[in-house]
Amino acid sequence: MTPLPTDAGATPAYWDAACHYLTQRDRVMAKLIPQFGQARLQTRGDAFSTLARSIVGQQISVKAAQAVWDRFVRHLGGCAQDLLKPDTVLAQDVPMLRACGLSVRKAEYLLDLARHFQDRRVHLDQWQAMDDESIIDELVAIRGIGRWTAEMFLIFHLMRPNVLPLDDVGLLKGISLCYFSGEPVSRAEARELGECWAPYRSVATWYLWRCLDPLPVEY
Length: 219
What we know:
It is an enzyme of class 3 (hydrolase). The protein is mostly helical. It has twelve helices and no strands.
């Protein structure tokens, strides 16, 4: 089981081994991985802040999401690099959160997220011993967090090595471009291809995202 990262900027200990494994098994990965040198997956923030940021960024551009996030954190009395606390969010109500540029729905989602953390309905201290699907089940019980968001959390925060987010448009587009000459690819085809990447499907996914956008994604 992959250890839980404790510091922002942490990188997975398995990354080099995963790259070697993938380049030995997959000719596309053998060409793709060296293009990005020493770039690595990195985590930032704590669990609560990471999930809150994912809610704020839903269905809007990266630039717009950052602007709303900055206003949201300033409204709570911090700066964009600060870690949020559930009780700080719960001190707000929906109209107060709306003033930061959040929709009513996103404001309600953030309050529900904060209540789950404050009431210890998420078991951070047990995640290291839990499998991916069990953590996903726990996270999707929070309003505003679906399977895709939970999978992004597994990859970017918990740094689980073997996640294949089949609902991710970028992953399917990357597979289409790199393996199917730009032809549309189905979830079933992506799943079958991903079998050869196990147990490092998260790493293969990360590099396919890079072929679409050289700038690393962070959550």
